[in-house]
């Protein structure tokens, strides 16, 4: 008999099993990423709203007064609710501005939050 080189049936079956397990893992990973797309889109839009409100707050000429202000804005066809809090710091020349964004008017679910500090220029 001639000695033919090649793969045995057992080796082929093991290779197919390894490939099948890898393929299932890849499909599950892609499925999880696709399922997270709406959540990521929502958080990205909320972050944009927070960043826009922070830019507006930092562009104000006057040193911000301590307190809280709520508002709403529309972005990408959806209403977003934001809250700007100006918080006193240990140094009287600095204030912390905190912008919180939610898709709920009662802020039960916070989607984005940014903080920044401003200094009194006077």
The percent of residues in helical segments reads 40-55%
Number of E-type strands: 4
Secondary-structure arrangement, i.e. CATH architecture = 2-Layer Sandwich
Anisotropy-based shape = elongated
User: Which strands sit side by side, in order, in the main sheet?
Assistant: 1-2-3-4
Topology:
Blueprint (H helix, E strand, L loop, with lengths): L8 H51 L7 E9 L2 E11 L5 E9 L7 E10 L3
Antiparallel strand pairs: 1-2, 2-3, 3-4
Structure characterization notes:
This protein is α+β, with helices and mostly antiparallel strands. A four-stranded antiparallel sheet has the order 1-2-3-4, covered by helices on one side. A hairpin with a 5-residue loop joins strand 2 and strand 3. The chain starts with 8 loop residues before the first helix and ends with a strand. The protein is built from one helix and four strands; from the N terminus they run αββββ. It has one domain (9-119): 2-Layer Sandwich (Pantoate--beta-alanine Ligase, Chain: A,domain 2), CATH 3.30.1300.30. The longest helix is centred in the N-terminal third of the chain and has 51 residues, at 9-59. The radius of gyration is 27 Å and the shape is elongated. The mean pLDDT is 92.
Characteristic terms for this protein:
122 residues, alpha+beta, Pantoate--beta-alanine Ligase, Chain: A,domain 2, four-stranded antiparallel sheet, 42% helix, 32% strand, elongated
TL;DR of this structure?
With 122 residues, the protein is α+β, with helices and mostly antiparallel strands. The protein contains 1 helix and 4 strands.
């Amino acid at each position: 008999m001639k000695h033919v080189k090649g793969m045995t049936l057992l080796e082929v079956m093991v290779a197919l099993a390894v490939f099948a397990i890898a393929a299932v893992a890849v499909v599950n990973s892609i499925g999880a990423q696709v399922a997270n797309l709406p959540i990521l889109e929502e958080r990205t839009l909320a972050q944009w709203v927070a960043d826009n409100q922070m830019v507006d707050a930092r562009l104000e000429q006057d040193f911000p007064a301590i307190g809280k202000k709520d508002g709403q804005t529309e972005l990408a066809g959806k209403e977003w609710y934001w809250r700007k809090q100006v918080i006193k710091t240990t140094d009287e020349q600095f204030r912390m501005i905190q912008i919180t964004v939610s898709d709920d008017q009662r802020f039960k679910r916070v989607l984005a939050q940014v903080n920044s500090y401003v200094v009194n220029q006077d």
